[in-house]
Design a protein that fits this description.
The protein is an alpha/beta fold and about 900 residues long. The protein is about 50% helix and about 15% strand. It has 31 helices and 25 strands. Strands 8-25-24-23-9-20-22-21 form an eight-stranded mixed β-sheet, with helices on both faces. Strands 10, 13, 14, 15, 16, 17, 18 and 19 form an eight-stranded mixed β-sheet that branches. Strands 1, 2, 3, 4, 5, 6 and 7 form a seven-stranded antiparallel β-sheet that branches. Strand 23 (about 615-620), helix 23 (about 625-630) and strand 24 form a beta-alpha-beta unit. Helix 25 (about 655-695) runs parallel beside helix 28 (about 745-770) and helix 28 (about 745-770) packs antiparallel against helix 29. It is elongated, with a radius of gyration of 36 Å.
């Protein structure tokens, strides 16, 4: 609509300057529906509940529990069912809290709107607006629908929620023939934006989901949330583990059954088959870490508390871990990298003075004083009693500048009250006010430098008024260009004596030029180090903003995002690239300017197609789809509800530096989750090896299913959670982001889990053999006891793969020791008369047996630490030799 003639727009919308008739409006409302965003149907609680049972390990556990129920092992089966049910309920509750983007978008709609119908002005509900309505706007109004301007008076609209621009857009009634992004469509207004200045009248061209905000809503519906690297890794691992467990259980069952039928037939066939089934089930129970989902959730929750201290509020638990593997941070400029407030950073007077004013207002030259007077008096901004700043951000910057120079702006306004004014409008690009200063009536003017220079016939030079020569004009224009090259927003200031009478636009001629003020939304001080830290951690920072390219590149250069070899693209330039061309240039582009919501999603998807974990920051409605598409969306605390609801994380201080702090916590959380998972699987591996060894040797099954469930669900949970509280490894922020396709058990982790599992199994096998010298029952009790103590003490070497327990600080994590003590107390409960029978521990099992089990467990753990110490020393020596060789 922005490229058509007004007559064509009115014809296409079938309306006129007099608006629609009530009857026609009702007809269109019935045909097209209300001016509201349609909400996509959400999954029911039942659907969400059932989806939690799709996990491969959950399916295996369901099979195991069902078989146990059929075989009469009611307690064991009920325990498994209870754990699965609890995990599902928790998952449903979290999911139900997560989604609210469309609801927040609907709340942005204005409650009512002023329109012209039947040729008369009237107020109606905004939801009753239809295409073809003629709507009216005043300062402070929400724009109720998308539309083409019919007339305007100094109209300015804050479109930051759609474009990301920090300053209001000036609107004009004019033709646009080129294809331009929303931020440059000055003849259009958009639903949900706010009128900050002036007035306007427009014809409604789109309502509801057809508006620009509606398109954002549509993008939110079609955007697929990404699974985190941990989720993907656990999914892959769960499938492989489940198949392996089922295969192993069937092999064991087959071996047992073959043995039964190849035997002498003297035993009870039914009882033998039942025992064979229970043996196979024991393997499945031993292999599956039943408490894994709960422990991962708890460790992630502990991470959210750490992140809250770093000003990062986590809305979706997996985001904690995702941050740790982030390799690309796509960040908005305004308010995230910058302070989100225009600030005067330089000035220029025709005598060549710039940089800094004289020390105090008393020592100011006439030139300095007049520049400040004009900037404050020809200005409608103000500061309320509560400190709130009211008005155009550019004008607010001017009164802030005056205050910082120890000249309170209100003192000047009280001293020189406004007599008359010529309001700003986008055609003149000027604003003028009349005041009496030092007994003389004068006109004060501010505006665009080119316009003010053109209309100035004289210059204020060292307190004297001299004619504007070509030389002065060139100097001023040269300085204006120099400011512009630094991406500074420049205003020019002038005055002239004028009698006390009604002002006319013709009075803004033959002005006396005073000077220039240059301003910018400056970078946050802490952002410089944060960007540098991100580079050290192997993360690339990309600026995606709605501001102009020149401004964006200047800020990006200043804070270290943009270097000489990098590229910058506008949204229009991005649209012209094919997918192949974008992928070729992607890693060189560090600045995107004047972008649309679709552009942002395309950029994120491009990085994701390269296998990069991408974070996206934003605060406006225009950012919401990209926030949802990103691996982790990061919304600003001062942003819109839409952005917050679409994001996985919210920054309470809107600070880019807080993201880097949160990344460190995220990496630590992932490390700790990996430690917890390694701890669980090392213990489970030990149990499986012991079971298989007993099968091969023809011994009794060393564990009952209930014993294994007790270890997996109760005993192992506390140490695993305690590992989630480990401090960060010293080199955590000096390593590259991990490969998202990397498995959970790779390299050092796999060898460590395998080695610890073998040592645990050796201790258990020896314990069972020793116990069997007395009886099969004592052998089982010894195996169970040794397995519990081995897995409990294993918490110490599980604390780190790169440090021994002493190097990590033996008592640095007090929760580890508390977990070991509590596990010991829980184990002692199984020795209480009445409970012994449930856990298959005979009366003849004494404290001597317990003590020997503990000694075996301690021996295994001591071997783990000694081996680690030797390996670390060898690796350290090898690394030192490599460094020395490189230096030589």
């Amino acid at each position: 609509m922005y490229q058509k003639k007004l007559e064509e727009v009115l014809q296409e919308t079938q309306t006129s300057d007099q608006g629609l008739t009530t009857q026609e409006a009702q007809k269109r409302l019935s045909a097209n529906g209300p001016n509201q965003l349609k909400e996509a149907p959400k999954k029911s609680s039942i659907q969400l509940f059932l989806e939690t049972f799709k996990d491969a390990m959950v399916i295996v556990l369901l099979i195991v529990a069902t078989v146990q129920l059929v075989m009469g092992a009611y307690v064991e089966s009920l325990v498994i069912f209870a754990v699965l049910l609890l995990n599902s309920v928790v998952s449903v509750i979290q999911t139900k809290k997560a989604e609210g983007s469309l609801a927040a978008l609907k709340n942005l709609s204005a409650p009512d709107a002023n329109v012209i119908r039947e040729g008369k002005e009237q107020s109606i509900l905004a939801k009753d607006l239809v295409v073809g309505d003629i709507a009216l706007l005043e300062a402070g109004d929400y724009v109720p629908a998308d539309g083409r301007l019919l007339e305007e008076g100094s109209l300015k609209v804050d479109e930051g929620m759609l474009t990301g621009e920090s300053t209001p857009a000036e609107k004009e009634v004019q033709m646009i023939t080129a294809t331009v992004p929303i931020g440059d469509r000055i003849n259009m207004v958009y639903s949900g934006t706010i009128v900050t200045y002036g007035r306007g009248r427009f014809v409604v061209t789109a309502t509801g989901n057809d508006t620009a905000i509606g398109e954002v809503a549509g993008l939110l519906e079609t955007t697929v949330e990404q699974k985190t690297p941990l989720q993907r890794g656990l999914d892959r691992f769960s499938k492989k583990l489940s198949l392996a467990i089922l295969g192993l259980s069937f092999i064991i069952l087959a071996v047992q059954v073959i043995r039964i039928f190849m035997g002498d037939g003297s035993g009870d066939l039914t009882a033998d088959l039942v025992n064979a089934f229970m043996f196979a089930i024991a393997v499945a129970v031993a292999a599956i870490p039943e408490a894994l989902q709960s422990i991962v959730t708890i460790v992630l929750s502990l991470g959210t508390k750490k992140m809250a201290k770093e000003h990062a509020i986590i809305r979706k638990l997996p985001a904690v871990e995702t941050l740790g593997s982030t390799s690309v941070i796509c960040t908005d400029k305004t308010g995230t990298l910058t302070q989100n407030r225009m600030t005067v950073v330089d000035f220029y007077l025709p005598n060549g003075q710039s940089g800094e004013f004289s020390q105090s207002p008393e020592s100011w030259s006439k030139d300095e004083r007049r520049l400040v007077e004009i900037s404050v008096l020809a200005n409608d901004a103000a500061i309320a009693e509560d400190g709130a700043k009211i008005g155009d951000p550019t004008e607010v910057a001017l009164i802030d500048f005056s205050n910082k120079q120890d000249q309170p702006y209100q003192e000047l306004r009280d001293k020189f009250p406004r007599i008359n004014e010529l309001p700003f409008d986008s055609d003149r690009k000027l604003m003028s006010t009349q005041h009496e200063i030092e007994g003389e009536k004068i006109l004060l003017t501010k505006g665009g430098p080119d316009i003010v220079i053109q209309r100035s016939s004289h210059v204020l030079l060292n307190g004297e008024v001299v004619p504007m020569s070509e030389e002065y004009k060139k100097q001023i224009q040269h300085q204006n260009e120099a400011f512009s090259e630094r991406a500074l927003r420049v205003l020019a200031f002038a005055y002239k004596p004028l009698a006390d009478r009604d002002l006319e636009f013709e009075d803004e001629e033959d002005l006396i030029f005073v000077g220039l003020l240059a301003m910018i939304d400056p970078p946050r001080k802490e952002v410089f180090k944060a960007v540098s830290d991100a580079k050290d951690a192997g993360m690339k920072t990309v600026m995606i903003t709605g501001d102009h390219k020149t401004t964006a590149v200047a800020i990006a250069k200043e804070i270290g995002i943009f270097t000489n070899d990098d590229l910058a693209l506008t949204g229009t330039e991005l649209d012209q690239l094919t997918e192949e061309e974008l992928m070729e240039r992607l890693e060189k582009v560090t600045v995107y300017a004047r972008v649309s919501p679709e552009n942002k999603i395309r950029i994120i998807r491009a990085w994701q197609s390269k296998g990069k974990i991408s974070a996206m920051t934003g605060d406006g409605v225009n950012d919401a789809p990209a926030l949802k598409q990103a691996d982790i969306g990061i919304a600003m605390g001062t942003g819109t509800d839409v952005a917050k609801d679409a994001a996985a994380m919210v920054l309470t201080d809107d600070n880019f530096a807080s993201i880097i702090s949160a990344v460190k916590v995220g990496r630590n959380v992932y490390d700790n989750i990996k430690k917890a998972i390694s701890y669980l699987f090392a213990g489970n591996l030990g149990a499986i090896i012991a079971i298989i060894f007993a099968l091969v040797m023809g011994w009794s099954n060393p564990f009952t299913a209930l014993q294994l469930l007790f270890i997996n669900l109760v005993n192992d949970s506390l140490p695993a959670i305690a590992l989630g509280l480990e401090k960060a490894e010293p080199t955590i922020m000096r390593r590259a982001p991990r490969d998202p396709d990397q498995g959970i058990f790779t390299g050092r982790t796999l060898s460590s889990v395998t080695y610890r599992g073998i040592l645990i199994a050796a201790a258990v096998i020896f314990a069972q053999w020793l116990g069997m010298q007395e009886s099969a029952e004592i052998g089982i009790a010894m195996a169970f006891s040794t397995l519990i103590w081995s897995r409990t003490f294993q918490t110490l070497p599980a604390r780190s793969n790169t440090q021994t327990s002493w190097q990590a600080g033996f008592f640095a994590n007090k929760m580890v020791w508390l977990a070991i003590v509590v596990c010991g107390a829980l184990y002692s409960v199984t020795l209480i008369p009445g409970v012994r029978e449930i856990f298959a521990i005979p009366e003849s099992f004494t404290l001597n047996h317990v003590g020997f089990s503990m000694l075996l467990a301690l021996a295994a753990v001591l071997l783990m630490e000694i081996t680690k110490m030797i390996l670390l020393k060898f690796q350290g020596t090898a690394k030192a030799e490599q460094v020395a060789q490189n230096h030589s």
